[in-house]
Amino acid sequence: MTNRSSSILRDDDESIILTEPYLQNPTQKSVSIIWQTNKPAYGWVEYGKTNKFGLKSDMVIDGMRNANTTMHKIRLINLESGSTYYYRVCFKPIVNIEPSKVDFADGVYSPTYSFKSLAADNLPVSCVIFNDLHSKFPVFDSLCNALGDRDYQFTIFNGDCLPSLHSQDKVVETLTVYNKGVEAHSRPALYIRGNQEIGGSLARDFKNMFDYPDNEFFFAITAGPVRFIFLDCGSNNPDDHREDSALKDFIAYRDKQKEWLKQETKSAAFLKAKHRVLVHHIPLYNHNNTGVSIFSRTSWSSVLDSVPIDVAISGHTHQYNFIPPKAEGNNYPVLIGGGLDLETATVMVLSATDKQLSVETLNAKGEIVGKYEKHTSGADYAD
């Protein structure tokens, strides 16, 4: 980790790096590093098991090193699971580019950061989960403070956290606040799309700021003994709803996810996992069907109801809730995160070992408002 006060390099009082590097798309053996610059540049990452680095990686597309861009995405591969790595991001601003000549400004080097690759299957893991922040920075700060000194390996922003997709400056500001709050330069931050992120003039550019497996908003990762499955419910409106101007086709998109789910739930990674956690923004089940995605439930339930899911985690309703198995037709327990103000906001802390999965839900004061535990012996506990 690094001192935040020196994390953004400056030149003539203007930021050269618009965003501090943030980690994306983690696996047990790889991770992506993203940062943005205020001028087109060629960027690379120097990294290694010590702060002497020794390794270098950049992005090559169709035989060409990615350059003349302000969005830099570098994938580090062949990492050792659960190991600490040190890195710095580097780039050369491009002053002029011609067919046979490129003029660079002096190279820029960030401070040294560190991260730990995701834990191996037999090691404990923990993460924190936010939802429905709606760019409410005081609420986010309070939830971060509520976490205290709890340690965690990565963060999940489970939808409706980046709702202001009308202004690039606002998006960068919000992303910067979130990433600093969870130290995303050292711990990956997974941004899951909610119904708010599909609106606005920049909605179709949302994916450009992040990195996802197979470039899809639905994906799965293994961290320690947990297999996480992430789904995208899309809009809670019908596709032909007047507010969406008939520019949505989530029926086909949910069907595409259903076919992917069929393959994922047959995979070795899913079947051998000690715990299986489902994450999506809009809940499929809630008391009295409040705020649920009937469309997604109709599409996916035939698959999800036939496989072991230990807990599903959602948001959207702005009210914390726990729905026990079978209470509303659900085959698995459902946890729904709270709202967007200090009175209702929550953050979840998920931790797992081979023998136990635990999810604590905290309010903005740091009080535990709910706790769910599942033991591999078969015993469950919810408070």
Number of helices in the DSSP assignment = 5
Under the CATH scheme, which class of the largest domain?
Alpha Beta
CATH 2nd-level architecture of the largest domain: 4-Layer Sandwich
Range of helix content: 10-25%
Strands, count = 25
Total of domains: 2
Oligomer: single chain
Give the arrangement of secondary structure elements.
Blueprint: E1 10-11, E2 14-15, E3 17-24, E4 31-48, E5 55-57, E6 60-61, E7 64-65, E8 69-76, E9 84-98, E10 101-104, E11 108-109, E12 113-116, E13 125-130, H1 137-146, E14 154-158, H2 168-181, E15 189-192, E16 219-223, E17 226-230, H3 250-264, H4 268-272, E18 275-279, H5 294-304, E19 311-314, E20 321-323, E21 334-336, E22 346-352, E23 356-363, E24 368-375, E25 380-382
Parallel strand pairs: 13-14, 14-15, 17-18, 18-19, 19-21
Antiparallel strand pairs: 1-2, 3-4, 4-5, 4-8, 4-9, 6-7, 9-10, 9-11, 9-12, 13-22, 16-17, 20-21, 22-23, 23-24, 24-25
Give keywords.
5 helices; eight-stranded antiparallel β-sheet; alpha+beta; 383 residues; seven-stranded mixed β-sheet; Purple Acid Phosphatase, chain A, domain 2; single chain; disordered N terminus; Immunoglobulin-like
Structure description:
α1 (about 135-145) packs parallel to α2 and α3 runs parallel beside α5. The radius of gyration is 21 Å and the shape is globular. It is α+β, with helices and mostly antiparallel strands and about 375 residues long. The chain is built from five helices and 25 strands. The protein has helices spanning about 135-145, 170-180, 250-265, 270, 295-305; strands at about 10, 15, 15-25, 30-50, 55, 60, 65, 70-75, 85-100, 100-105, 110, 115, 125-130, 155-160, 190, 220-225, 225-230, 275-280, 310-315, 320-325, 335, 345-350, 355-365, 370-375, 380. The longest helix has 15 residues, at about 250-265.
